[in-house]
Amino acid sequence: MTKDDGFTIIVYAIMLVAAIFIGTQIIGPALSDLNLSTSGERYGFAIIAIVLGALLSSIIFEVGHLIGAKLGGYMILSINIWGLSIYREGKKWKFGFKSFEGLTGEVKIAPKKENANPRWYLWGPTILFLIEVVILLFVYVNTPSEPPFTGSSVPAFIHHSSLIFIAVGAMLAIYNIVPFKLDTINDGYQLVLISNKVNVEAFNELRRIDGAYTLQQPVGDIKTFEQITTLTTEVNLRAIYELQYKNEDEAALELIESIDISEVQLDPIMKARLYAQKIWVLIKLGKIEEVEKLWESLTTKTKKAIGDDTNLETIRVYFLYSGVVAKSIHESTYAINRLPKERRKKRKHPRFDEETKLMSDAIALVRQTNPDWQIALRKEAK
Predict the structure, then answer these.
(1) What is the pLDDT of residues 235-274, one digit of tens each?
(2) Which of 48, 181, 185, 266 could link 271 by a cystine bridge, Cβ 3.0 to 4.6 Å?
(3) Could you give phi then psi for residue 74, rounded to 5 degrees?
(4) What is the rounded average pLDDT of the residues 15-29?
């Protein structure tokens, strides 16, 4: 179990405790006050209130991202709430269901200016949620807790629903703002990442690149960074991928070797991806002995991270290493058989076509090294 897994379990445990508290201390008394007698009425009210509370907070969070992005100097590329997405594709806006990075939704952005400030974008959901809490508390205080003997019982339902909405929203807000890397990328973790100027530059460069792909515009020269952090390494990797696609392997190796990670605490997966790309360019340059020495120097965790990574860029590296250096048909087959599933999930991957070409190069090289192997990419399901 990694440290990130541990933080994720702790946060979910806190959310579970919060859910139990909501059920026993908020929903339970509400059911009694509202005189809901049948099981259907009680469960119906509880489920509807919880779902509406989660939906309201999800909308509030993404509207917060939207407003914060505008204040920070960004353009909106997509808005996604519970998988329902409005997104740009080229110059057109489209509507459909898409996956997202986050607990309840995601707003993708691209900087409109060089000094765009991501803090507005990342703090926006929390600020807007606090405004929501103030409004709902006002409603709670100014509505009756019990329905009258005669007249409408709606105010009493609103009274209790407002408190449930606050509680459910707070549970989701906890997940969003904790300053740790969880099973999805939350705002709290990103706020930690952009705590210095160079990381703000890297944050904006990553979104500039993704924005160019989304808008179907040339990416142009990718900025590279000498100061190494998790974010700057990710940007440098984007530059390395582009050099590999152009077959500029000497330049890619030079960039990789300029990245000194010996005294930097990087995200383990980012470190593994950097080593993986060094393996790729060394193989392409025919430096097999150097690859063998590099692989032997890696920790077991890093080797496993390279072998298990779901990134298209890393899968092709592990396939190439297994076929050309390790000459293991078992590991080569393992890597190539994982590819169709990951490609299906990443058809909208900004570098999908480039990675298809690089994987074809890898397959050709593995076949050349092992002419007796019967190895091929399985046909992808539509």
Answers:
(1) 999 999 999 999 999 999 999 999 988 778 888 899 999 9
(2) 266
(3) -120, 155
(4) 85
- The DSSP annotation for 87-107 comes to EEETTEEEEEE---SSSSEEE
d(CA 44, CA 142): 25
State which amino acid sits at residue 305.
A
Please give the single-letter amino acid code of residue 185.
I
Distance of CA 380 to the CA centre of its chain: 24
Range from 6-20, 206-220, 327-341 carrying the lowest mean pLDDT: 6-20
How do strand 84-89 and strand 105-111 relate by DSSP bridges? unpaired
The closest of 232, 241, 239 to 204, measured between CA atoms, is: 232
Cβ contacts of 170 within 8 Å, gap of 6 or more: 18, 133
- CA proximity to 295, closest of 318, 263, 270: 318
Domains in the chain, please, with CATH?
A: 3-190 (no CATH), 221-369 (1.25.40)
Q: Are 12 and 178 in contact (CB under 8 A)?
A: no
Q: How far apart are CA 360 and CA 316, in angstroms?
A: 9
CB 103: neighbour CB atoms within 10 A? 17
First-to-last alpha carbon distance for the chain, in angstroms, is: 35
Residue type, 205: E
DSSP conformational letter for 145: S
Tokens of 152: 């409408």
- Beta-bridged to residue 92, according to DSSP, are 89
- What ranges make up the beta strands (E) of the chain? 74-81, 84-89, 92-97, 105-111
**pTM to 2 decimals?**
0.87
φ/ψ bin of 311: left (φ > 0), alpha (ψ from -120 to 50), beta (otherwise) = beta
